[in-house]
Each structure stands twice: as C-alpha cells, then as structure tokens.
Amino acid sequence: MTSTPLTIGFIPLVDAAALIVAVDKGFTAAEGLNVTLVREVSWSNVRDKLNIGVFDAAHLLAPVAIASTLGLSQVKVPIVAPFNLGLNGNAITVSPALYAAIMGEADGDPADPMVTAKALARVVATRRKDGGEPLTFGMTFPFSTHNYQLRFWMAAGGVDPDEDVRLVVLPPPYMVDSLASGHVDAFCVGAPWNSVAVDLSVGHILHFVSDILERAAEKVLAVREAWALENPDVLARLARAREGCGLHRKSGQPGRGRAHPCNARPDRCRSGGDPAHARRPPENFPGRHDAAKRALPAGRTRRGGPARSRAGGMALRADGPLGAGGLFVGGSGVGQAGVSA
Predict the structure, then answer these.
(1) What is the C-alpha to C-alpha distance for residues 163 and 80, in angstroms, rounded to an integer?
(2) Residue ranges of the domains in the chain?
(3) pLDDT of 278-319, one tens digit each?
(4) Are 188 and 176 in contact (CB under 8 A)?
(5) What is the pTM assigned to this prediction?
(6) Residues 136/236, Cβ–Cβ less than 8 Å
(7) What does the alpha-carbon distance between residue 311 and residue 70 come to, in Å, rounded to a whole number?
(8) Which residues share a beta bridge with 92?
(9) 186-190 and 136-139 as β-strands: parallel, antiparallel, unpaired?
C-alpha cells in the first residue's frame, strides 16, 4: 500500500488523545497513512489552516464545523465531521474568591447547577450595587460548546451573559495562567486544564458539562467537504485507524484500549477534580431533559423579541432542543448535522 501523507492539526487537550494514540501506536501507519501532527494554540489557527488547505484534517470544535459550513463570521468553507472525538468534556472552573462568593450565596445543594446559577445572579447583583467590575469568564471560542454551556447555565439562573458579565476568548493552554493572574474570574475549558487549576490551587471545578447539558458534542475530526469527496478511501483509512484505539477493541491486543477513558468521554477523566461535583446532573436542572423551555428566565427579552444570546452570530433559542445538545444557527435549526456523536 502506498503511504499517503497527511497533516493534521490539534490543540493539546485530552480529547485529541484518539488522534495522538492512533499515530503513536502505529494504527495510522498500518492503514498506509504517514501522519504529521501539528500542535496549535488557538482554534482560529486550526480552523483557518484547515480551511485554506494547510491541514488535511483537524481536531476541531464541533460548532466551528457548522459555522464554517454556513459562513458565519468567517469564510464559507463546507466542513464535514466523519467522527466524534469528545463528548461532554468541558468543565466550569472558578477562582477561589468567586467560589467562596457563590458558596456564600448558594441556597441548596451546590452540586445542583440551578443553585449555583441563582447564586451567581446574586453575586453579580451585589457587585453591580457596590460599583464593582463585572465578572470575567474565559471560553475558548464564540462557536463552541464552552460558550453555550456558560451562557445556558448563567441564563437559567437569571444572569444575562451579554450584559451582566464579560465573556472573553482565550486559547485553552492560557486558561490556568489567566485565572492565576486574576485576568479572569472563571473559565470553561476541556481537560486537562480544569484539573491543572485544581492541582495548582488556583481554581475550583464548579460543574462538569454533563451537570448542565445531558449530551454535548465537543470536538470532531474535521475535513473539508471537497477534500472528503476527492479522498474517500483516505478518509475511510483514517477512520479505521482511529477505531484502533477506541473503546470497542479487546484490551488483550497490544496497544488497544489504552486510551479509552478519554477517547469518547473525556468527562470521565476527573483526576484532580473536586470529588463533590463528580455526580450525574440533578433531575430538576433544565439541561437534564427539557432545558429548552426554561433556558432563559421568563420576561428576559431583548429589544422586544425573543430572548437570544449573541454567541458570535449563533443564537441559543429558548424553544430549541439545547438540553439534548442541539445547536441553532441564525435562528434555523441545524441540530448536529455533520457531527457524529
């Protein structure tokens, strides 16, 4: 079999493990693929290099694949996602000071995200009354489940994420330093950065994404649609190589199954997390089942229309299936088109 060169971009996160293991353990080579993995710092770099052809494939935020296909806030380049790399892998980590403030306002079990969301609303109201600066939350990209998870949680408790707090974009590797330096009060990011913040005693994990949304596709293996149509055999070989380090292989085969804890469900990799929050979502939290109809507080509207969240052009609609992990773009239902969960 002729060796096919491939360049694949990735961000240093746990949910890139399937790609890294596939190359390191020789699964890609066994499929006749000569893969070069390129480490990047920001999602915009990964997206742009994939779109212009520097990368053949990329570890990418699932919503970015949809946004690129629709041309939202970027050049329109159709992207397809043949398989999922991460499900429910994010967490919200807060500074010790904000953690103490939220715990001081919590009326109920702090493992319940509705309790902490309402507590956050009270913290925000107190800061405003005292003339303090708005709290700053870091997230990885406007088109990301990190952004949506933060907005959904805040809005459920009565906090307007566009008016009451600041949401800023930070590359994942910079999250912990930004929290430690006080540049942000909290962040939402994937593993391992939440656990790193806990290990360094600069943050507390408040909630995992699975506490808030029942099912959220985080990262995908993304390729340009045109490339996929031109190279169906190469794409099939890449998919088989990824399966080599998946959950469904017998652990008795050399190298197989070793990456399974972080392959499809990185939220299970909770080393360094706060044990009290390693629980299933409370049944009464909106995101557990029917979050959509209660995602935004009653009466919270913007300019006379339905309550919306300005998430880089992507709206989270109160009548959409957000609790099931659905995404809405420009007011039209897109669901998880092109994303295998």
Answers:
(1) 34
(2) 4-86+218-264
(3) 333 344 444 433 332 333 333 333 333 333 333 332 222 222
(4) no
(5) 0.70
(6) no
(7) 15
(8) 188, 207
(9) parallel
